[in-house]
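Hi all, long-time lurker, first post. I run a small reading group and we've been trying to get comfortable going from sequence to structure in the token notation. Rather than ask abstract questions, I figured I'd post a concrete chain and ask someone more experienced to write out its structure so we can walk through it together at our next meeting. Sequence below, copied exactly:
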Amino acid sequence: MEGSKTVSAETFRSPLFALSSAYIDDLADKNTLFAITEGLGTPSRLADFSPRATAERVEQLQHFLGALDSPDNAPTDDIDRIAAIVMRERWTSALHLAQSGESDRTFSVLWSPVSELRQAFDLIPHETEQERERIVGWLGEVRPALATWKETLDLVATRGQLPSQRHVIGVAEQAVTYSEGTFDHLVHTVESSHGPQPALRAAAADAQAAFGEFGQMMKATYVPQATASDYVGEDRYLLWASHFTGKTLDLHELYAWGWDDLRGIHRRMVELAREFAPNSASLTEAIEVLDADERYLIHGEAALIAALEKIIADANSALENKYFSIDPRIRHCEVKLAPPGSASAAYYIGPNEDLTRPGSTWFPTMGATQFPLWRSISTWYHEGVPGHHLESATSLINAERLSRFHRIDGWISGYGEGWALYAERLMFELGFMSDYGAEMGYLVSQALRAARIVVDIGMHLQLTAPADLGVLEGLGDCSGRVWTPEMAGALLQYRACLTNIEATSEVDRYLGNPGQAISYKVGEREWIRAREAATTRYGESFDFKAFHKFALDLGPMGLDSFATEMARF
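-- Answer (accepted) --
Happy to help. Here is the structure in token form:
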């Protein structure tokens, strides 16, 4: 295939592993942001989001799926068998999204070329003169990269397939926010270590101006053409939900299960609130008591980073040997502050292939200067250790068992987010969140993920709310009503204790990324089922450490395949 790199099968344990590595090389060659994010090479052009790039992506996936079917790449053993399962499922899912146009027509503030372009600069080294010159060149590529996305937006608009105004406006405003100094921190950091950088400063200013101009263009050009409805319907939803979970789903069963789970979590939240805030008239008032409790308040960004770093370090020390084998190469996980314009949710970025860039967790301050830590303890087990960092970094270094594709690009939300939510539950079960603030933070996390199932499926499929939903503040009795964004936001505020800003951001996320939000609880349910089945089989001889090692050694995979493989433990 033109543009791909030839990899000798003799370098790898099998022809299938060679094919996997060839795919990663080819993807890095064609998708330069992927190459930057993963630390794979130094492309001169920053990104191409045009229809030509989509067509090339389809050709690429068809080529490698065809190669996967070749007898020359037949699995040679059990390790190969799993590698083939993962490649086939992920490549087929990506092909369906590209061919259907879904990958071009679906975007939001959580993901779009705008945020992807900006985020890439968080990951680029700038210690040497050559690296700084490269940054200057890539900043100069922001404007033409955005122009390629305009080509795709024009095509999508012609087809009448733009997302709703909510998402077009959201991304446009995000771009405008980036124009207001998004690269100032980068320039300041470089100049504080290496002196004045006039070329870098000029390139940063041009890139910021390009974001601003693009945002204004989006508002003027695409908002009037945007789709009226916020909802994608069941067929489109299932396509995305399958991509994010790798599982055949019964959405109506899942909707009912999510509501039942949320009901139980909410009952415990109310019980706990009565213990620490007996005079509060509502759960909202009890949460306000927690938010004002000096026992949990962190003042200033430096103190926040130190507190979150301690959560990760303490988890590493406490879990090593008894529950996990944590490789020394991945014990360190950085804590960073998310840049302005980010969504309100914390996130994780994994290390690069050679581990020269460590994994990192990112906290969005949303302009705040003091932080109620009770809200973040469970979250940092989710994002750091034993959550995303342990799972993702363990897969990355497991080169003996996992193909290069599997380790670098095979991550799937149902497995990974399911693991991270399971990790929170594990830490709660082990007693790490036994005081009332930490437990409430854990319950809020669980309530949010259960509520996501209800409102994500409910909105996109336009289902009626449960008959016992009851009163949502400001909206009256919402039982039996068809789900709306306003109802979803109110449920998140008053059943999952989000702030208004957080709830608004969450609703925008669900409407812009259908099917992704349910992957957390869907995945956690599979992890719990796998552990329950294993404890039933082994009884008192069940070994947490062995169970976790077996499961993480599998690497990320679709949840249907995961259930099949875990039955072998």
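A couple of things your group might point at:
The longest helix spans residues 251-276.
DSSP finds 25 helices and seven strands in the chain.
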